[in-house]
Every structure is written in C-alpha cells, then in structure tokens.
Write a structure and sequence with these properties.
73 residues; mainly alpha; 2 domains
C-alpha cells in the first residue's frame, strides 16, 4: 500500500479551507434566518408552516439517504 506524505503547508491549507467553509455556512444560515423572519413578520409564512415543511423535507431526505444506503432492499 502506498503511503502519502502530507506536508505541514498542505495541512495548513486544508485547515484554512475548512475555516472558510464554516464561515460560508454561518453566513448562509444567517441570511436564511433573516429571510424566514421577514416572511413570518410580513405574514407570508407562519412558524407552523415552516415547521411542517421542515419535518416533511427532513423525512424526504431521510428516505432518499436510506434508499441510497440500501438500494436493493
């Protein structure tokens, strides 16, 4: 088996990329939260509708993931 050598510089670059992803993720969630709050404040969406849709999408995604893990059964 071939061993791969990862330099310290490559590890630093990887850590920086992970940090960038975390920052992007935070900013995306912050923007989404702001949009949802505005929609609820304007009466275009209720908290209950949001919760129902979240549960529905989570169940759908769970089913897709389960099907992909067990494609024959």
């Amino acid at each position: 088996m071939k061993k791969t050598h990862v330099s310290a510089w490559e590890q630093v670059n990887l850590a920086a990329k992970v940090a960038d992803l975390k920052d992007d993720h935070y900013r995306t969630l912050l923007s989404l939260s702001a949009i949802l709050e505005i929609l609820i404040e304007k009466g275009l969406l209720t908290q209950e509708e949001l919760e129902q849709k979240t549960v529905h999408l989570d169940q759908e995604l769970g089913a897709v993931i389960a099907a992909s893990l067990h494609p024959m059964g």
